């Protein structure tokens, strides 16, 4: 069976190569630079960037306009793809060494980080329990967004 190359390749003890669509890589590099300049969150340093000509076509669901989510939430800068796969932890000390995968980061409604953290297979029971301790839960908003996602 032919396997797709991994998006992340560890090229050495301190080096990770990330592959993806150019628009996602641009967003991720911009987000990582923003976070490095404005926070103390541990972010890998971008050593080099290579963009290709890949593109994508987005779709818009007109039926999803009325989502029952009011437009009154605070807008916050968020990682928007927080999961255990994206958090590098030193197994000896428990210290977070880096947070990876910033291409979806941006300014989103305050409930968005929770919604994306429980997305798909990430909602393992142990992960969900951990999230309850470290992040505000927006269960109603998550359920509405998951319903809309089906369209």
UniProtKB/TrEMBL annotation:
Cited SUPFAM superfamilies? Protein kinase-like (PK-like)
Domain Aminoglycoside phosphotransferase, residue spans: 65-118
Q: Which InterPro entries match?
A: AGP_Transferase, Aminoglycoside_PTrfase, Kinase-like_dom_sf
Name the Pfam families for this protein: APH
Q: What is this protein called?
A: Aminoglycoside phosphotransferase domain-containing protein
Please tell me the species this chain comes from: Tolypocladium ophioglossoides (strain CBS 100239) (Snaketongue truffleclub)
Question: The organism's lineage?
Answer: Eukaryota, Fungi, Dikarya, Ascomycota, Pezizomycotina
């Amino acid at each position: 069976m032919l396997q797709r190359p991994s998006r992340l390749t560890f090229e050495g003890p301190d080096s990770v190569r990330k592959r993806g669509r150019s628009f996602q890589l641009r967003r991720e590099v911009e987000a990582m630079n923003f976070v490095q300049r404005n926070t103390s969150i541990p972010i890998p340093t971008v050593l080099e960037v290579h963009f290709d000509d890949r593109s994508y076509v987005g779709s818009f669901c007109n039926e999803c306009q009325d989502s029952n989510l009011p437009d009154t939430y605070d807008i916050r800068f968020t990682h928007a793809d927080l999961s255990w796969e994206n958090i590098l932890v030193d197994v000896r000390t428990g210290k977070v060494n880096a947070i990876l995968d910033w291409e979806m980061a941006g300014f989103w409604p305050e409930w968005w980080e929770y919604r994306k953290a429980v997305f798909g297979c990430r909602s393992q029971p142990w992960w969900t329990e951990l999230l309850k301790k470290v992040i505000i839960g927006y269960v109603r908003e998550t359920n509405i967004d998951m319903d809309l996602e089906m369209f």
